[in-house]
Amino acid sequence: MKTIWELDFYSRPILDENLKKTWEILICESPLDINANCDRLFRYSRFCSSTQVNSGQLRSAISEAISQAPNPPTQIRFFRRQMNNMIVKSCKELGIVAQPSRRTMTLRRWLEEREKEVYPQEPGYQESAATSASVQYDVAIAQPLPDAILGQKWAFVTLEAQAFAEMPEWDIAFQESFPLTSFGLSETTPIPGIILFSPRAIPMAGWMSGLELGFLKASDDETSQLLLETGVSDRWILSNLNTPELLKEGRRFEQAKANSQGIHFIAIQSDPNSESFAGFWLMQELNM
């Protein structure tokens, strides 16, 4: 079974004795299924000075984390593009794949928790600088999906949160999810999503599983498109929302996402009558 870690290496709102910002390396394990116990997932942290911000320090921290973890990572995700070269270099030297990703929900929640409960207790804390989780992304031009994996049909759908308790019993070829229990959603909260239908469902799901799935976005601007955001800036056009009814459905989808803390899903099936999924991914749009 694969193990994926999420990593952040960045300055924190804490000044050291030389009035320089303290840096921190955070590593946490990604929950990959709906029943994952978040309290038992691996976590690691290390503070360091601004003079120690280099790939050697990061490589040392990752090595130490591996020595402490129950399972070594097969992949490490990170969301800060400005740290790309250092993170990729350190991971490569350890034989680990490093992947820029917006699928770092656990890390983001941990950062928010530390900004409220940990950093304010440290000597040198600077409240005005407590924005460790913020990052800016370039908006890329949306690209059409490759012809070989285009779906023939698609539909907006919703499932109540309680329905995902049965997800381990579903027949799914490619998937990734996370537990909903830590979000405080009621059992009847509608979780919005889309289902893509294609006779090439398995190849399509296989291709999609190789992406770092971020989130779905029903744009309500001059383009009016249903977009799949991947990596840290890639965008794919799933469909044009080119009728009044599709525009209304897109707006309802976005409203449902807002009501479910950004949680939604994308699924792939061979046809509407299929009882299995070629792919199913639970996602969350994060406020980056």
TrEMBL record:
<protein>
    <submittedName>
        <fullName>Tab2/Atab2 family RNA-binding protein</fullName>
    </submittedName>
</protein>
<feature type="domain" description="RNA-binding protein Tab2/Atab2 C-terminal">
    <location>
        <begin position="133"/>
        <end position="284"/>
    </location>
</feature>
<feature type="domain" description="RNA-binding protein Tab2-like N-terminal">
    <location>
        <begin position="4"/>
        <end position="114"/>
    </location>
</feature>
<dbReference type="Pfam" id="PF06485">
    <property type="entry name" value="Tab2-like_N"/>
</dbReference>
<dbReference type="InterPro" id="IPR046761">
    <property type="entry name" value="Tab2-like_C"/>
</dbReference>
<dbReference type="Pfam" id="PF20429">
    <property type="entry name" value="Tab2-like_C"/>
</dbReference>
<dbReference type="InterPro" id="IPR046760">
    <property type="entry name" value="Tab2-like_N"/>
</dbReference>
<dbReference type="InterPro" id="IPR009472">
    <property type="entry name" value="Tab2-like"/>
</dbReference>
